[in-house]
């Protein structure tokens, strides 16, 4: 936790990196169709760390899928400035037949890098996530936290400036999660990334985000946007953080109850 | 070193038991010596076979047929497997047929093969290929179908498309299942080949199957049993290679419970 790093280079003011307008996604047709998202509108500006909170079924994962171009919206539009965004999931989904370095090198290879360049870049990225000694380990030999770090390095290998993260730390213990929060924040700052981080954990969202988008479910809509003006670095146990998280939690409860009735 | 011994002594023990049981059966006089010789005469015969160039010729012919048939089966099986996995129409058309074909005993193909191709190498090859291809096709298909969707999603989000997706993600992910299919296909190949060599005894061609046939005709039981041992050992050796590859693959990917 380096107080000197608290001031990071400000991005070109208010450059909008992602603009989603009136996004809708329906699975299936007619009466049996499931409306995963309805009329979702929001923007991300360059260098922002935005968290999205909602309970299961609010379409958070669908939204990321749409933003990443893995699926097409049923209605509405998405505007992305810049290259293909990089995705990270709760399951690191590393390729089990490759080593940690191999996984990153594959990402680089698919991106068009040559053999020597790949090896060097992979090593750099492993250093960034502090796994230099584990380059030749295979995924099953790594802990959950390490796997997510490799997944992060692999996502960064794509040179994207937009990182879409779908509950990446959901399967980890609280202590590892805490460490990874700090690491992620560091990487975000150092590289000037824009991050959209989806989670069901309100505290995590307030720990990481510049603002928090609260989603309601069935259908998925933007229910509220809560700015987080706390100075960084933040401590997840802090009272102020807890207060904002509670506010978000209350809002989520409201949304769930209004549907249950 | 200890691990090697731990793996080996049970096999040696089992072998010793089999040999002892065999000898006891012979000693019991259940069948006369000339029909059921004991281990010693058989191994003596085996020893003399191993000095006989004709024996090696026979083994070469059989192995050549096996390699050719199995090789063609790999080509056909893999192509079919990928086609069924990838092309919906093909899957709908022959997916079920492939599974059904696998349960068809290859020996049942022989009368048809002989009808079509006469008593020839082609007939034998035909049956070997038909025996092994469905197993290989199914291994390939299973491998592709059972790739965890999260891996495919990872691949797509890294930008892999079409050929690159196949080369870097789908084929490596399907490899263990593919090898399992190869292992099974080999077993079918070897079995159909032996049946073929017995049924379609092509006069001038020495082969293991032919030796079996002659040994029976001329009543040389030691030779019969010795040849059977050779057939068994070859089958086991190749199977052992596949087994090793399979285990190594699984261990590297953390799929084995070691």
Keywords:
heterodimer, A: 261 residues, alpha/beta, Rossmann fold, 2 domains, six-stranded mixed sheet, three-stranded antiparallel sheet, 7 helices, 9 strands, disordered N terminus, B: 258 residues, mainly alpha, MetI-like fold, 81% helix, globular
Span between termini of chain B: 18 Å
User: How is the CATH topology of the largest domain in chain A named?
Assistant: Rossmann fold
Strand proportion of chain B: under 5%
Whole-number mean pLDDT of chain B:
89
In the CATH classification, which architecture of chain B applies? Orthogonal Bundle
In helices, the fraction of residues of chain B equals: over 70%
Q: What overall form of chain B do the CA principal axes indicate?
A: globular
The assigned structural class of chain B equals mainly alpha
Strand count, sense and barrel status of the largest sheet of chain B are:
none
Oligomeric state of shown chains: heterodimer
The succession of helices and strands of chain B, N to C, reads: HHHHHHHHHH
CATH topology of chain B, which one? MetI-like fold
Q: Which shape of chain A, going by the Cα principal axes? A: globular
Indicate how many domains the architecture of chain B comprises. Answer: 1
Explain the overall architecture.
The complex is a heterodimer of chains A (261) and B (258). In chain A, helix 2 packs parallel to helix 4 and helix 6 crosses helix 7. Helices cover 36% and strands 24% of the residues of chain A. Chain A starts with 15 loop residues before the first strand and ends with a helix. Chain A folds into two domains: 130 residues, 3-Layer(aba) Sandwich (Rossmann fold); 66 residues, no CATH class. In chain A, helix 5 links the parallel strand 6 and strand 7. Chain A has 261 residues and is α/β, with parallel strands linked by helices. Helix content of chain B is 81%, strand content 0%. Chain B is built from ten helices and no strands. The longest helix of chain B has 38 residues. Chain B starts with a helix and ends in a 6-residue tail after the last helix.
